[in-house]
């Protein structure tokens, strides 16, 4: 007899309302052990409330949650050593260095101080070990916050918009940290409204809006399912618009002052025709992305 499959996280029809506002409206999903799972959507979509319910920080009005096979609500002491949480707003102890912050957090779980250097190295802060937290940059503080969530070696790590308000370089540095965490065998559940980031990092994503899950799958599968056209952008004067419209496989041609964009579902055919006409210089090709999936599902502008 085959046993029942065990998930790191299993949420079934969870709901949470605040007056007339349905913050979470019947959300269900599972997360496998070792998976990087993203909950995506604009601000106000219900991402943070969903995460807080799964973490056991907030009681749902209805539905059930199993976290590592246990109910996280009411406060479950069995889960505390096995779960790491990084919230949107991080608070640190005043006047402590990065090393002292981690040592203090670790002491709450009985963790040896020898682990601290490993955590600082993992998040790229070993050279900032003796710098006070308030003198770290925004990206460095985010990495320290993640290190605090990891210092007790949890099995599941929850990260709520860990790259919010970071500059592009700091975001990409943090991506490396998140990949390193998963490489250690950890399960990561995180929220973000950066769809490009989720497309790179996540094994699977759930796209939310207005408290509901609109779609859930791997980023690649969601993009394939959209069947969106490929857009080929040409430099000004590379090809007359009428000539472009006459190429086999071209669905639409859109002209602007600085460029011309061709839409096609047969990019190989169109690119071959452009090559024959010597129109490849400066050409750019853009395939569908998760943002296209999101806009197709919601039918309106993506909300930052």
Automatic annotation (TrEMBL):
GO terms for cellular component: plasma membrane. It holds the Pfam family ABC_tran. One of its GO terms (biological process) is response to antibiotic. The keyword Secreted does not apply. Gene3D superfamilies: P-loop containing nucleotide triphosphate hydrolases. Keywords: Antibiotic resistance, ATP-binding, Cell membrane, Membrane, Nucleotide-binding, Translocase, Transport. GO terms for molecular function: ATP binding; ATP hydrolysis activity. It is found in: Cell membrane. Belongs to the ABC transporter superfamily. This is ABC-2 type transport system ATP-binding protein. The lineage of its organism: Bacteria, Bacillati, Actinomycetota, Actinomycetes, Pseudonocardiales.
């Amino acid at each position: 007899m085959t046993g029942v499959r065990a998930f790191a996280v299993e949420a079934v029809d969870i709901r949470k309302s605040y007056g007339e506002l349905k913050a979470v409206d019947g959300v269900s999903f599972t997360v496998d052990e070792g998976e990087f799972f993203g909950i995506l959507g604009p601000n106000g979509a219900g991402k943070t409330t969903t995460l807080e319910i799964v973490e056991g920080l907030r009681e749902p009005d209805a539905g059930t949650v199993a976290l590592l096979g246990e109910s996280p609500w009411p406060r479950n002491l069995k889960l505390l050593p096995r779960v790491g949480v990084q919230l949107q707003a991080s608070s640190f102890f005043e006047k402590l260095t990065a090393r002292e912050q981690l040592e203090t957090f670790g002491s709450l779980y009985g963790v040896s101080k020898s682990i601290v250097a490993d955590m600082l190295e993992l998040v790229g802060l070993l050279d900032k070990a003796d710098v006070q937290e308030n003198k770290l940059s925004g990206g460095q503080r985010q990495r320290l916050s993640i290190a605090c969530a990891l210092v007790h070696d949890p099995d599941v790590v929850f990260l709520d918009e860990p790259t919010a308000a970071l500059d592009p370089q700091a975001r990409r540095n943090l991506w490396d940290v998140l990949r390193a965490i998963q490489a250690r065998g950890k399960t990561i559940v995180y929220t973000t409204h950066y769809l490009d980031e989720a497309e790179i990092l996540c094994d699977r994503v759930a796209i939310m809006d207005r408290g509901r899950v609109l779609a859930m799958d791997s980023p690649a599968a969601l993009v394939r399912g959209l069947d969106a056209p490929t857009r080929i952008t040409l430099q000004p004067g590379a090809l007359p618009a009428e000539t472009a419209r006459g190429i086999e496989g071209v669905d639409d041609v859109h002209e602007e002052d600085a460029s011309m964009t061709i839409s096609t579902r047969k990019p190989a055919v169109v690119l071959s025709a452009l090559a024959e006409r010597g129109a490849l210089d400066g050409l750019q090709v853009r395939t569908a992305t998760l943002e296209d999936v999101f806009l197709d599902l919601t039918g309106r502008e993506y909300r930052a």
